[in-house]
């Protein structure tokens, strides 16, 4: 049973590739166009497409001079996978087709099934693509897929459900279904060592499962698109120029609980600069609905969270925008960014930084830009996060933070007082005593907080500013952190306390 589940999960993960790949997995070879008529050529090409399996049915005809058609295609592989295509049409000249259309596509495997109503490939390079070639070359003006449905069985682990919330039986599997109205891809150009895809967009995605803890929940997405794909040479990387997500909703019994209205991101790489920009129009949580769905024993905590984050309005929303760049500076680069987050009825947060980095010998700024933006590396589980940056040497830097309170601090202090059984004044008094303790800022102490510089009259500047904010005497907190140029952060990565000893911090409350 466990092996079947594992295999089913493996097949389900493969389905992601099937979604976009059904329009691409058209492999085979061509025979002499002089020797055979178009319908005969299509029959031979499709037979070679299926030569790794057993072709069970295939009927070929030529309804008109501009249409060559194969119907009732069915193939079975020795591993149990099966593929069926009701109709395969080649429109226009067989040697230079205007369009290839597949209808009624069904792929089944262990614990997984994919149904696609229609796949259209505009201006394909061949009537039957040859992906089995060691050096495939293919192109198309566009690919459009309609009405795609994936169904399968997966385990709790595959659904990302923590063990504490999973089913009692570790081998339990559940049905999952994902439906997509359409997938549209722009111009495709693929060769052995490189390729590009103008854009791909997914519209009308919904997902659901009969897992007991997920029953009634539904994920819906109006649009997800990626643009400006390139892979392979000259940069030997998978790069994506833009991303857009719109109309993401998490529903329970057809009522929206949380969602994202629109999220966009763009990146651009040149030899001298890497730039990125991200914008979130709105992300929201409906606490009123969420509290109603929470088990009775957890509603008190959820109500406190609601009160702190929304002030009782029961709807938390957040928007934000950020821009960043890495500029080439000879043997070094300068990474800098500015971002702003606005959480309505809670807070505003602005963050900016500037860090110069020395490049290792033999590496160029463009090498660093490319590796940092390479999705192939980012998605490789074998690559650690710090490897994205090569062995670059930090040359100091600065990080700035500005927090604007919109009532969240006052509400947080009220909740903290209640949960600790103290009055607000007692709570603040205890915090003030903590900030005066010698272990925080006492002169001559080798303390882990002693390096939080700006010590003023024996008081730590950062703690003093935070206390002013918590007391309600200020609504803005400004913090600046400076890393000395002489400090090698890499040597202190495993010793954060020593890192704090060298960090220069200034803070103020307004």
How would you summarize the topology of this molecule?
Layout: H1 2-21, H2 38-49, E1 54-64, E2 67-76, E3 82-93, E4 96-109, E5 112-122, E6 138-140, E7 142-155, E8 173-185, E9 188-190, E10 194-209, E11 217-232, E12 239-252, E13 255-269, E14 273-286, H3 287-293, H4 299-310, E15 315-329, E16 332-343, E17 347-358, H5 365-373, H6 375-378, E18 393-394, E19 397-405, H7 408-420, H8 424-436, H9 438-441, H10 461-470, E20 476-483, H11 496-502, E21 504-509
Antiparallel strand pairs: 1-2, 2-3, 3-4, 4-5, 5-7, 6-9, 7-8, 8-10, 9-10, 10-11, 11-12, 12-13, 13-14, 14-15, 15-16, 16-17, 17-18, 17-19, 19-20, 20-21
Helix pairs in contact: 3-4, 4-7, 8-10
Could you explain the architecture of this structure?
By secondary structure, the protein is of the alpha+beta class. Helices cover 22% and strands 45% of the residues. Among the domains are: 1-152, no CATH class; 401-509, no CATH class. The chain has a 21-stranded antiparallel β-sheet that branches. Mean pLDDT is 81; it is low at 1-35 and 438-459.
